[in-house]
Amino acid sequence: MRFPSTIGSSVSLSLRAFQIYGANTNVGKTIVSTILCKALRRKSKNHEGVWYLKPVSTGAKDDADDR
User: Fold this and answer.
1) Cα–Cα distance between 65 and 59 in angstroms, integer?
2) Where is pLDDT greater, at 50 or 6?
3) What whole-number distance in Å separates Cα of residue 58 and Cα of residue 64?
4) Which domain does 50 fall in, by range?
5) Would you say residue 11 lies in a domain?
6) How many CA within 13 A on the CB side of residue 4?
7) Residue 67 has what pLDDT?
8) How many domains is the chain built from?
């Protein structure tokens, strides 16, 4: 996997980032994020360069996305 070139320790100038916000648990943020990532990956010329990061998971343990 190739990563975009960077300047020093800064993030690549060609990096595009999207943030998905929702007001509560179970409103579909993860589903929307998955659909967006899949669409962007299909649109990319080499099918690379799309990453997903979920830095925080809140709510009850039974509602976790990783089960």
Assistant:
1) 10
2) 50
3) 8
4) 23-56
5) no
6) 14
7) 57
8) 1
